[in-house]
Design brief:
seven-stranded parallel β-sheet; four-stranded antiparallel β-sheet; 383 residues; alpha/beta
Length: 383
């Protein structure tokens, strides 16, 4: 019986190994040179994406349209509406509307109809963007969005659904937009979702300078002197101080500047590469040099009973959290949530939940997270 259970859990493990892997794509994911060519090719070979949006969401596609020419990549970053391994397959504008147009629920109905059509059986990634509707959304409105997304994930387990924040509107950190975007971010982080942080990407220039506290809007205008009105534009300033077709490229980024379209395209390819299996776990600072590597190792023993060891390495002081989740994505217990100095560490889980009760046999996920790093791996408790 034990041998049978072990084979069963290993089969289940390989079927669900990436189920609860959190992916957060933000301004830290705009260094396209760090994405291995093999990861780009894997994305083209394995992903079939459908993307619903209106004008603001088109910034991603506009940036992607000119990226290959800018990099002189001879087709490496090419995409197409048709399924062809020479291109990344994206069914762009697959349905009318966006996450708030014509209302806040129709997008989900259209997605369900689309995925239930046998002609679209190859689709394995779904992404929708907002226009300006997060600015006026209530907490309940955002909960509706999150609940609809979560239900689609349950109903279509073989499809990866990408959550998204709303674009900047100049209302600042105290505005409703920021509160609602934080609601989306917190949900995604807590529940190990896939998030394309559209808003966060708009808050930083390519050098990492932050403008989010200066009332920036979707056009990249911001208040540079604190007098309450926009008087500068971080994208135009950066473009003017750098060389076109060397440091940046022109593209028609709706409602915004070309540089914003560039950044969105870089981040999009980071997303595609990560969804196709690239770990994307490097922390990058200062002239694109990798100065901080965090490593989460496989637990040992695995399968285990009654306890297992989890080893990790950090090369930059950070607050580190280690959580255990069950196969439903529910938090079982938190092993640690504390500050750690640079070094190698080994922690153990005794197979008990946060109330001291014994966990049942099955697959569990251990997630190591800090401000610099997030990784999730699987393990098997076999009694």
């Amino acid at each position: 019986m034990k041998y049978f259970l072990q084979k069963f859990f290993f089969s289940l493990f390989f079927a669900t190994v990436n189920l609860f892997a959190q992916i957060i794509v933000n301004h830290n994911c705009t260094k396209i040179s760090q994405i291995p060519e093999s990861a780009i090719i894997n994305a083209k070979n394995n992903l079939h994406i459908t993307y619903g949006h209106t004008s603001h969401g088109s910034q991603i596609i506009s940036g992607m349209n000119y990226l290959d020419d800018f990099l002189g990549a001879t087709g490496l970053y090419a995409w197409s509406e048709e399924a062809d391994e020479s291109f990344l397959h994206i069914d762009d504008y697959f349905m009318d509307g966006d996450l708030g147009n014509p209302d806040r629920t129709t997008w989900a109905e259209r997605t369900r109809t689309y995925l239930n059509d046998s002609q679209n059986s190859e689709i394995n990634v779904v992404m929708w963007s907002w226009c300006g509707q997060v600015s006026s959304a209530s907490e309940e409105d955002i909960n509706t969005y999150l609940n609809l997304m979560n239900q689609l994930e349950i109903d279509f387990p073989n499809v990866k659904f990408v959550y998204m924040t709303g674009h900047l509107d100049g209302s600042g950190l105290e505005g409703n937009l920021h509160l609602r975007n934080e609601q989306i971010r917190n949900f995604c982080k807590t529940n190990n979702k896939i998030l394309f942080d559209f808003n966060d990407i708009e808050c930083y220039d390519p050098d990492g300078n932050y403008f989010g506290d200066k009332y920036p809007n979707d056009n990249c205008d911001y208040d540079s002197d604190g007098n309450g009105s926009p008087d500068a534009n971080w994208a135009i300033d950066w473009q003017n101080s750098h060389t076109e077709n060397v440091d940046w490229y022109n593209c028609d980024a709706a409602h915004s500047q070309a540089l914003n379209g560039n950044q969105k395209a870089y981040a999009a390819w980071w997303l595609w590469a990560t969804l196709s299996g690239w770990n994307g776990i490097t922390s990058v600072e200062n002239n694109d040099k990798i100065i901080s590597n965090f490593t989460l190792e496989n637990n040992y023993p695995n399968p285990f009973n009654p306890s297992t060891n989890i080893n990790f390495n950090i090369s930059k002081q950070a607050n580190v959290r280690l959580d255990i989740f069950n196969s439903l994505g529910e938090l079982v217990t938190t092993i640690t949530n504390d500050n750690y100095n640079v070094g190698n560490y080994s922690l153990s889980w005794n197979g008990k939940d946060q109330n001291g009760n014994n966990a049942t046999s099955g697959i569990y996920f251990y997630k190591l997270s800090s401000e610099y790093f997030t990784a999730t791996k699987s393990m098997i408790l076999l009694k």
